[in-house]
Structure formats: structure tokens, C-alpha cells
UniProtKB/TrEMBL annotation:
This is DNA sliding clamp PCNA. The lineage of its organism: Eukaryota, Viridiplantae, Chlorophyta, core chlorophytes, Trebouxiophyceae. Residues 127-247 form the Proliferating cell nuclear antigen PCNA C-terminal domain. Belongs to the PCNA family. GO terms for biological process: leading strand elongation; mismatch repair; regulation of DNA replication; translesion synthesis. This protein is an auxiliary protein of DNA polymerase delta and is involved in the control of eukaryotic DNA replication by increasing the polymerase's processivity during elongation of the leading strand. It comes from the Eukaryota.
């Protein structure tokens, strides 16, 4: 028997909206440590990793580890039926072919129950290795979202380059060029408003903007983001991480 009760039900709705554009079907892995998901997009260019610790739920119980395969668009449709302040409880038997979602209003005067059919999805855990990165940048999530949105009006790709002066986002397209530089800023009071650069060596990589714009749908989950890996920390209970392969220029591929 699996049961997980989340008082901040709106959080689950935001998580689904943040990942379903990249991944349409995925296995939710249930274990005593919590809920997790790992899946690649259809083009195998980006990967999404979700982790929600069991202690972040008001109540979490599972008798053993198992997988729940779900269509994320269908799951999102059901979650939209929950009120903004509803408490959401997920329930499933290990051998059942459905998972139920219970939506309770804060005053308990309305209770709705929906059942979603589970899917048999074959997938493998990629076992993402621990990697030492040449540079790490922590910046306000809304700022990252705005930069990606603005630059995508000019070009299809963005070069991110990190130096001691800051992080530079640059793009070029048929109508012109654009660039944005964010310098380290630790003087502001709120840590979520700071831009913090930790650089071992300068780095410059090019990424597809359409994927980064998809990643920024998770902006509502966190106030700060670390671009790329792009990581959004979810309250105090876990994270959504997006991994994106850099674009390789044709001349590099020919060598």
C-alpha cells in the first residue's frame, strides 16, 4: 500500500506543469525515501530528474518499493481539478492498475476522488554520475526565465559563457544579435535575489533555447536557479533538475 498526503497540493500541480512539456510518459519510483522520477525527452537531448523526499509530505507510507507509470498530461488534467488550496493525497496498491487522487478542501467540506489508469512503461535508470563542473552560477529564477524568453525572440540558440566578470548569454538570428551579462551580486539582503558565481575555469557552451524555455516552466517552484544542470529546489522537500546536452558545431563534429 502506498499513500502520500501533501498539504501544499498546488505544489504537485506546479511540478507537473514544469515537466510535462518535455516528458509525456514516465515512471514515478516509490520508496521509503520518497517519490522520484527520471526520464529523457523524445529527442534524447534533455533529461528530467525529480526527487520529493518522504519527510516533505504530511503523511507518507509505502510497504515496498515499486513503480507507477503515468501519462503526465493525463495526470496534469486530473490535478487541475483540485482547488488552489486543496490537500492532495495519492493512493495506490502495489499490484493495482490505477492510482487515486483525493482532493480535500482546507475546511474538509468538499472531497473529490479521481482515478488514473497506470501504464506499463519500460525505462532504465541512467545513474547520473557525480560530475565536477568548471563553473556554477546561482541566480534568481525569474531573471533566468526572462533572459531565455527575451533571447528566444532573436535566435534559436544561446551561448552561455562564464568568466570572472560574470555570466554572459548571447544569441544571433536573422534579425540581429543580443546579449545579456549578469555580474556577481551578493550585496542584496535576500539570498534568493543574489547572483553567485563559483568558477574554476572559464567555460562557454551553446544550448538550444527551446529546451531552456521549457525548463523555466519550473520557475514557480523555486526562487533561484543554477544553470546548466538547471536545478530548481522545491521548498524544503526536494528538487527538479534538468540536464541538457550542449550543441556541437558542425566543424567540431567533422574533426
Amino acid at each position: 500500500m502506498f499513500e502520500a498526503r501533501l498539504v501544499q497540493g498546488e505544489l504537485l500541480k506546479k511540478i507537473l506543469e514544469a515537466i510535462r512539456e518535455l516528458v509525456t510518459e514516465a515512471n514515478f519510483e516509490v520508496s521509503s525515501s520518497g517519490l522520484s522520477l527520471q526520464a529523457m525527452d523524445s529527442s534524447h537531448v534533455s533529461l528530467v530528474a525529480l526527487s520529493l523526499r518522504s519527510d516533505g509530505f504530511e503523511h507518507f507510507r509505502t510497504d515496498r518499493a515499486f513503480s507507477m507509470g503515468m501519462n503526465l498530461n493525463s495526470m496534469s488534467k486530473m490535478l487541475r481539478c483540485a482547488g488552489r488550496d486543496d490537500i492532495i493525497t495519492m493512493k495506490a496498491e502495489e499490484t493495482a492498475d490505477t492510482v487515486s487522487f483525493l482532493f480535500e478542501s482546507p475546511t474538509q467540506d468538499r472531497v473529490s476522488e479521481f482515478e488514473l489508469k497506470l501504464m506499463d512503461i519500460s525505462s532504465e535508470n541512467l545513474g547520473i554520475p557525480e560530475t565536477e563542473y568548471a563553473a556554477s552560477v546561482r541566480m534568481p529564477a525569474p531573471e533566468f526565465q526572462r533572459i531565455c524568453r527575451d533571447l528566444s525572440t532573436i535566435g534559436d540558440t544561446v551561448e552561455m559563457s562564464v568568466t570572472k566578470d560574470g555570466i554572459r548569454f548571447a544569441t544571433a538570428g536573422d534579425i540581429g544579435n543580443a546579449s545579456v551579462i549578469c555580474r556577481q551580486n551578493t550585496a542584496v539582503d535576500r539570498s534568493d535575489d543574489q547572483t553567485v558565481i563559483d568558477m574554476n575555469e572559464p567555460v562557454a557552451l551553446t544550448f538550444a533555447l527551446r529546451y531552456l524555455n521549457s525548463f523555466t516552466k519550473a520557475t514557480g517552484l523555486a526562487s533561484a536557479v543554477l544553470p546548466v544542470i538547471v536545478e530548481y529546489r522545491i521548498a524544503e522537500m526536494g528538487y527538479v533538475r534538468y540536464y541538457l546536452a550542449p550543441k556541437i558545431e558542425d566543424e567540431e563534429m567533422d574533426n
